[in-house]
Amino acid sequence: VMKFLILIGIGVLSVFQLAAQGPTTDEPVYRVVESMPAIGDCKELKDEASKNKCTQERIVFHIQNEIVYPEELKEYGVEGVVYTYFVVGKDGAIRDAKVIRGVEHSMDTEALRVVKMLPEFHPGKQGGKAVSVEYTIPIQFKLNHGDEVLPESED
After folding, report:
1. Helix, strand, or coil here: 31?
2. Which of 4, 8, 112, 145 would bridge with 69, disulfide CB 3.0–4.6 Å?
3. In terms of Cα–Cα distance, which of 144, 141, 154 is closest to 78?
4. CB-CB contact of 94 with 116 (8 Å)
């Protein structure tokens, strides 16, 4: 039985940017802000580095647990990295999600589906005000022919 491994590279989520496709609103969208968006109780952590690490771990956990490797691609051994882009709005909701570099339609669609399902964030802040922040997340689809495979994150 062929198993698969999904690797998500989130080392520096908002700094690792590909040519970002602009937002759909007129409000500014930031790459890095004083207080980055946070998921759930990550917001309660005192220092920014711990809050960011916690949020990155939550994103990786979500993607690893929700993503489904398209069956037809497993059969043909198709692998690759799908680069997704999204904005965490100043209301904490995900918006403008899209694939900015894809591999194959069903793989791209699956990566986008899972990104759109991310839990709501606490918005990022700049100058004490909630702002929109963009992210690029590469999601690697990789087949593994071993017996025991657990999803792993890649820094």
Report:
1. coil
2. 4
3. 141
4. yes
Q: With H, G, I as helix, E, B as strand and everything else as coil, classify residue 143.
A: strand
List, for residues 77-101, the tens digit of each pLDDT value.
Answer: 999 999 999 999 999 999 999 999 9
pTM of the model: 0.78
3-state SS of 73-97 is HHHHCCCEEEEEEEEECCCCCEEEE
Look at residue 144 in the predicted model and tell me its pLDDT: 83
Lookup result for tokens 């069956």: 71
| Burial category of 114 from C-beta neighbours within 10 Å (exposed 0-12, middle 13-18, buried 19 and up) | buried
